[in-house]
Every structure is written in C-alpha cells, then in structure tokens.
Amino acid sequence: MCACIVDGVKVRVLFFRPSYGGSGDYPAVADYNGDGIDDVATYRPSTGEWFVGGIPGVVYVSVTNGIPAPGDFDGDGIAEFAVYHPSTRTWYIPGRPSFEFGGSSDLPAVADYNGDGIDEVATYRPSTGEWFIGGIGTPFTFGGTNGRPAPADYDGDGKDDFAVYLPSIQQWLIAPYSVSVPRSASSIEPCEASS
Ligand SMILES: [Ca+2]
Ligand SMILES: [Ca+2]
Ligand SMILES: [Ca+2]
Ligand SMILES: [Ca+2]
C-alpha cells in the first residue's frame, strides 16, 4: 500500500497493477471467475474484445460498438460479458438470445436491486433521470438528469442501491430508499422501456 496525490487529494493505493487496457476501452469491473473478488477488466468497443486482469490475452469477444454491461444474470457467481447497444436498444448476454430493452440514449445500470443474487438488466436515462429495471413495468426517477449511473450496495444491506454521479456539479446522489423489485422477477425479461 502506498499514497499518492490525485487532483490535490492524497489517496491511498491499496493495490497496484501494471498499465492495463487501451485508450478507447471502457472499464468493466465484475467478478469473472467467481472467486468473490471483482476483477479489473476493460471492454474495447472497436473490436468487441474484453480484457480481464490476471487472465492474459483476450478472454472473450462480443459485439462491437456497445457499452459493457457485465453482470451475473444467472446467479452462478460468475459475471457474464454482456453488452448494451444503445442505437438498437439491444442487449447481448452470452448464452442467451439478444433482446431489446431500454432507450437509445440510455446507459446500462446492471445491479442486483432486490438482493436475490441475480443481477437485473437495467438502464438509466440521462435526459430524464429515469431508471428502467427489468421485471418492473413502471420506470421511476432518481438522481436528476445528465448523470452517470453508479449502482452498488452502499449501505451493506445486500441490495444494490440506486446512485448517480453528476459530473457537472461533481456530486454523488445515493437513493435513501429501496424500490421494490420482485424477487421472482426474471432478470432478463424486458419490460417496455423504449425511448
Ligand atoms: Ca474474481
Ligand atoms: Ca453468471
Ligand atoms: Ca436481483
Ligand atoms: Ca444497499
């Protein structure tokens, strides 16, 4: 462990890994080997390649020009290399037929909102601040507009929480409440959320 200065703020570096990924890559952190520890990973839109830290070379090639939306959609503890294509509203999850869900301006917001161990297909719409969760027919609004979704379990109750980072004002908004997501909801059954 060491310390460094980032934008004038002293931060502790818990782990250090060599330079990794490419300049056009998206971060795509998830647990890809099921050891309970999230893995450093990137997705490269230009080629559809995924690179996972600790696993040399390309480990998976999926569709190109998408946004990575990894998650454990079958509850086996291992994240799937899922991709969302905003232009066609199409989700690609390995081993399953592609399907449409979300809007053309949406950002993927995959998380386990009901704490059943299975991640939900979900999107956040920056233009309206609406969230669309697979299995819930009615979208809801949280976090304002033009944010970036950052769902995670911020209070440790086992359910991921709705959260948004607003770059324009450099603020995080974390929902102080839970939205009821049926535990039996199939994570990849789309409810209509077209834009
Ligand atoms: Ca792992
Ligand atoms: Ca899985
Ligand atoms: Ca879930
Ligand atoms: Ca929580």
Characterise the protein shown here.
The protein has no helices and 17 strands. With 195 residues, the protein is mostly beta strands. It has a 4-stranded antiparallel beta sheet with strand order 3-4-5-6, with no helix packed on it. A 4-stranded antiparallel beta sheet has the order 7-8-9-10, with no helix packed on it. The chain is globular, with a radius of gyration of 17 Å.
Features:
195 residues; mainly beta; 4-stranded antiparallel sheet; globular
Give a brief description.
With 195 residues, this protein is mainly β.
Gap between N and C termini: 46 Å
Count of helix runs: 0
- Which term fits the overall shape? globular
Structural class: mainly beta
Main β-sheet, spatial strand arrangement: 3-4-5-6
Number of strands: 17
Average pLDDT over all residues: 84
Helix content: under 10%
Query: Main β-sheet: number of strands, strand sense, barrel status?
Result: 4 strands, antiparallel
Proportion of strand residues: 25-35%
Rg over CA atoms, rounded to whole Å, is 17 Å
Bound molecules: calcium ion
The sequence of SSEs as H and E is: EEEEEEEEEEEEEEEEE
Low-confidence stretches: 184-192
Layout of strands and helices, then pairs:
Layout: E1 2-6, E2 9-13, E3 26-27, E4 41-44, E5 49-52, E6 55-61, E7 67-68, E8 83-85, E9 90-92, E10 99-100, E11 107-108, E12 122-125, E13 130-133, E14 140-141, E15 148-149, E16 163-166, E17 171-174
Antiparallel strand pairs: 1-2, 3-4, 4-5, 5-6, 7-8, 8-9, 9-10, 11-12, 12-13, 13-14, 15-16, 16-17
This protein binds calcium ion (4 copies).
